Structure formats: structure tokens, C-alpha cells
């Protein structure tokens, strides 16, 4: 059997001596991808002015990345299974760095949008390769818990880190550095991956590529993400918006039918239909809807209502980051081998819902230390606690040859959840704001004050929805995720035996 690039492990069950070094570079790459989803947001107004991007096309700087990333994730996961995760990981890093350099050097609208699309495409190679490398390299339950604790903290908190970094770079350097900053990240991670990452030879999937599945899934996911991003500014009843949603449903239905029939499917349905993984994908996607909506509202509240600078706004998110790190690495990691995953995920989502509930009390003069900071801490603790077992369970017990596409499904649920959260909750907020202002406009003594009051009312109305979504996430996690504590055997095996393996409880340590 031909070797993958790099040295193979003696067998899939042996512990890789470089696994902890590898985790450093995998985590660095994941941080780069996650923070890129938000770092550009703060720089966008300045970049728009410099490049002459119209207001109508401004949203495409964000949408071009989201469409390419969300649409190509399943394909990227399958490529990782086919090429090998190490090779795919390095190619994704190099491509992401090149696309970032192109974006930073952009001289016009077309160059910027092209660079964002390329970033999304290479991110779709990189993200599933990173998670699946963890899945095949960390096989001991305790070590796996620690590794996924770190990864979960980054996946959950990276977006908030992007707000801090984006604010700092935009205010003190130049918006172009929100792109250039990716280059050293990518170079260090690529060199490190080349030197230390090794991958079990048995983890490769050499089946032929499912071309119909690639086409249908890519078009279906692109249509779904575009439908939600279009609904945000054109309305849910817009003819093209409705048409795109209908096309998405048809394409994804055709994709599922195709996957059930082809010999080597892009996404084996066993990955989705296993109860625990299905519960993870669904609950995680819903939770991300709530979290991404909050990023948007809190950013607007702090900058527009409270007058915070971009840097101050970014640092105002620090309590959430701290909460996520503590929840993931201290609570989730320590309890992962002692209690069933649903006893971490469901309470974690409920704790996050409690933090979100506190933010429904926002008004024009809310205290940062008395309300916003403790709410963020609670939200971060809850999400960090829930993300850690979710990331681990999403790939636990999967046939190693399917780990890339199983990892891609985690990223897909997050990406689609983020697109839905931004569009759905922003629409709810805008509608509530309009109704509030219309009902009080006639007797308003200060129109500017009324506008700000209406904006905050819109935010709190949408946050109530986010609370409900997190409660539903908790219910799904508790009802569908039935696996016991993971045992210490390798996190892989035959697809047929995957469900039985992850349900075996062990005595608590």
C-alpha cells in the first residue's frame, strides 16, 4: 500500500508521540479560520470606503466567504479522507494564506470578493481536516477529552477573538492587516504540520469521488446559505429568496436520495443517522444560531448605543472568551470521562440560555459590570461546557475513513447555523425596532433618543428568541444523545459497530 506524505504510524491504535505538538498547530489553524468569520466585520466600513464598494454589494464581502466555506465543506471533508488529512491540512493553509494576501492587497471590489471566495474555499479544506486529524490522532479517552477541550474553546471563542483583533488592527494599523495577519498564522501552522503531524495509513478512504454528491451538496448548501443572507436585506417573502430556498430543499433532497444509492457516497448516511451524531449536529447548529446573533447585537449595542470604539468593543467580549475557555478546558474536559455527554451539553446550553436571558434586560444605560459582563461569563461557561463534548462526540466511533466528512458536518452545522442566526435574528430585531418606533413616533420629543430606544428594543426582542433556541438545543441534546461515558478504546472502528462502541459506559475514574 502506498504511503501518505509523511511517516505513517505503526498502526491506527498506537499513540502518536507528536500528538500534543500537532495539537498546537491544529489549534492555531482552527483559530485562524474561526476568527476570520468575524475579524473582517469590524474592518468592513473602512475597506468599503477605500475600495469604493457600493452599499448594495458591501454584504458580499461577508457572503462570498460564507457561501464558499459553507458550500464546499462536505467536499473538503471528503477530500481530506481521500488525499489524507495532513496533506489536505497543509494545502488548505497555504491556499488560505495566499487568498489572505490577495485580500490584503485588493485594489477594487472584484479583487476583494474573489479573495474572500478563495478564503472560504480553502477554509473548507482546512477546517474538516483539522478536526479529523484530532479524531484519528487522539485515541485515549482522557487525552481526547483534553485535546477536544482546547479545540472546543477555540471553536466557540474564536469569533469573539476576531472582534478584538479586528478592532485593534483597524484602529491602530490598517484594515488590510485583518487579512495579512492570517499569513504568519498559516505559515507557522503549515511548517509545524509538515514536521510533526503523522496520520494512520488505515485512516485513508480510497473510494472514488462521488461527483453527483459533490455537485448536489455544494449547490444545495450554497443556495441555503445564500437564501438566509438574502432574506436579511431583501425580506423573507421576496420572490428570489423564496425561489432560492425551494431550490435548496430540492437539491438537498436529491443529494440525500443520491447518497442512499451510490456505492461510495460523499456523505455516508450512517454518519448522519446515528442518533448521537445527529443530535450533536442539530443541537450545535441551533446553539450557533443564538450565539452568532448575539455577536451582532452586542457589537451594535456597544458601538452605536454606548459609543465604544472598535478596540473597546472587542475587549468587551473578553468575559465570553474567558468563560468559554474555562467551560471547555476545566469543566468539559474534567467531566468528559466521568458523565455522559448529554449531562454536559444539556446543562451547558441551559446555562448559556440563562446568560442570554440576562441580556433581555438591556436598556440604554445598562451597566457593563453589573449586567453585560456576568451575562457573557455565564453564556461562555455554558457554551464552552457544551461545545467540548459536542466536538468529541461528533467524530467518536466513526470509521476512520469517514472522519473527514463527519468533521465537515460539524463545521457545516456551525456555518449554516451562523448564517441562519445572523439573518433570522437580525430580521426579528429590525421588525421589532420598526414597530416600536412607529407606535411612538407621533409623541416623541427626541427622535434620536427614540431611534436608540427602538434599536435596543429590537435587540432584546431577538435575544428572547435566542433564549428559546438555546432551550430547544438543550432539549435535543438531552433527548437524542444517549451515549454513555466514552471508554478508553480507540475512537474509531467499523461503521457498523460505531453506535455500539460509543454507548458502552465505563466506571467513573
UniProtKB/TrEMBL annotation:
Major localization class: membrane
Domain Major facilitator superfamily (MFS) profile, chain residue ranges per copy: 22-485
Subcellular location(s) of the protein: Cell membrane
Lineage top rank: taxon: Bacteria
Topology of this chain in the membrane: Multi-pass membrane protein
Coiled coil: none
Keywords: Antibiotic resistance, Cell membrane, Membrane, Transmembrane, Transmembrane helix, Transport
Stored CDD domains: MFS_MMR_MDR_like
Residues that span the membrane, as ranges: 20-40, 60-77, 89-106, 118-138, 150-169, 175-197, 209-228, 240-258, 279-302, 314-332, 344-362, 374-398, 419-442, 462-481
InterPro entries xrefs: EmrB-like (IPR004638), MFS (IPR011701), MFS_dom (IPR020846), MFS_trans_sf (IPR036259), Sugar_transporter_CS (IPR005829)
UniProt entry tagged with the keyword Metal-binding: no
Transmembrane helix in keyword set: yes
Listed PANTHER family: BLR6921 PROTEIN, MAJOR FACILITATOR SUPERFAMILY MULTIDRUG TRANSPORTER MFSC
Protein name per the record: MFS transporter
Organism field: Streptomyces amakusaensis
Amino acid at each position: 500500500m502506498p504511503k501518505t506524505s509523511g511517516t505513517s504510524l505503526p498502526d491506527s491504535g498506537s499513540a502518536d508521540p507528536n500528538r500534543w505538538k500537532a495539537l498546537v498547530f491544529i489549534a492555531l489553524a482552527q483559530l485562524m479560520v474561526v476568527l476570520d468569520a468575524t475579524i473582517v466585520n469590524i474592518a468592513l466600513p473602512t475597506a468599503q470606503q477605500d475600495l469604493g464598494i457600493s452599499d448594495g454589494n458591501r454584504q458580499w464581502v461577508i457572503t462570498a466567504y460564507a457561501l464558499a466555506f459553507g458550500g464546499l465543506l462536505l467536499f473538503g471533508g471528503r477530500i481530506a479522507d481521500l488525499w489524507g488529512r495532513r496533506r489536505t491540512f497543509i494545502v488548505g493553509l497555504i491556499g488560505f494564506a495566499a487568498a489572505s494576501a490577495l485580500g490584503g492587497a485588493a485594489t477594487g471590489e472584484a479583487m476583494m470578493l474573489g479573495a474572500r471566495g478563495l478564503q472560504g474555499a480553502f477554509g473548507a479544506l482546512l477546517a474538516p481536516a483539522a478536526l479529523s486529524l484530532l479524531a484519528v490522532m487522539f485515541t485515549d479517552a482522557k487525552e481526547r477529552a483534553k485535546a477536544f477541550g482546547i479545540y472546543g474553546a477555540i471553536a466557540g471563542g474564536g469569533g469573539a477573538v476576531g472582534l478584538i483583533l479586528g478592532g485593534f488592527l483597524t484602529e491602530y494599523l490598517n484594515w488590510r492587516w485583518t487579512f495579512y495577519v492570517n499569513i504568519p498564522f498559516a505559515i507557522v501552522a503549515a511548517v509545524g504540520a509538515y514536521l510533526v503531524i503523522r496520520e494512520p495509513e488505515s485512516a485513508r478512504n480510497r473510494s472514488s469521488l462521488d461527483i453527483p454528491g459533490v455537485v448536489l451538496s455544494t449547490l444545495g448548501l450554497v443556495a441555503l446559505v445564500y437564501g438566509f443572507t438574502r432574506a436579511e436585506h431583501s425580506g423573507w417573502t421576496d420572490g428570489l429568496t423564496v425561489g432560492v430556498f425551494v431550490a435548496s430543499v430540492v437539491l438537498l433532497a436529491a443529494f440525500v436520495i443520491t447518497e442512499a444509492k451510490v456505492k461510495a457516497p460523499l456523505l455516508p448516511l450512517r454518519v448522519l443517522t446515528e442518533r448521537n451524531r445527529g443530535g450533536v449536529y442539530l443541537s450545535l447548529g441551533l446553539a450557533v444560531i443564538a450565539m452568532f446573533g448575539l455577536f451582532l447585537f452586542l457589537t451594535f449595542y456597544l458601538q452605536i448605543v454606548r459609543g465604544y470604539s472598535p478596540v473597546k468593543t472587542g475587549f468587551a467580549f473578553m468575559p465570553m472568551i474567558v468563560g468559554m475557555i474555562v467551560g471547555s478546558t476545566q469543566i468539559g474536559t474534567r467531566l468528559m470521562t466521568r458523565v455522559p455527554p448529554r449531562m454536559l451539553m444539556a446543562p451547558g446550553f441551559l446555562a448559556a440560555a440563562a446568560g442570554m436571558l440576562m441580556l433581555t434586560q438591556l436598556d440604554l444605560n445598562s451597566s457593563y459590570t453589573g449586567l453585560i459582563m456576568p451575562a457573557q461569563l455565564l453564556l461562555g461557561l455554558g457554551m464552552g461546557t457544551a461545545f467540548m463534548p459536542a466536538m468529541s462526540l461528533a467524530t467518536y466511533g466513526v470509521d476512520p475513513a469517514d472522519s473527514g466528512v463527519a468533521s465537515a458536518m460539524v463545521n457545516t452545522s456551525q456555518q449554516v447555523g451562523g448564517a441562519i442566526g445572523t439573518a433570522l435574528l437580525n430580521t426579528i430585531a429590525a421588525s421589532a425596532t420598526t414597530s416600536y418606533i412607529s407606535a411612538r413616533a407621533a409623541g416623541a420629543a427626541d427622535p434620536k433618543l427614540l431611534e436608540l430606544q427602538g434599536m435596543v428594543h429590537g435587540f432584546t426582542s431577538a435575544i428572547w428568541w435566542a433564549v428559546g433556541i438555546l432551550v430547544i438545543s438543550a432539549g435535543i441534546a438531552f433527548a437524542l444523545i444517549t451515549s454513555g461515558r466514552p471508554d478508553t478504546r480507540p475512537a474509531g472502528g467499523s461503521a457498523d459497530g460505531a453506535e455500539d462502541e460509543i454507548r458502552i459506559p465505563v466506571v467513573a475514574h
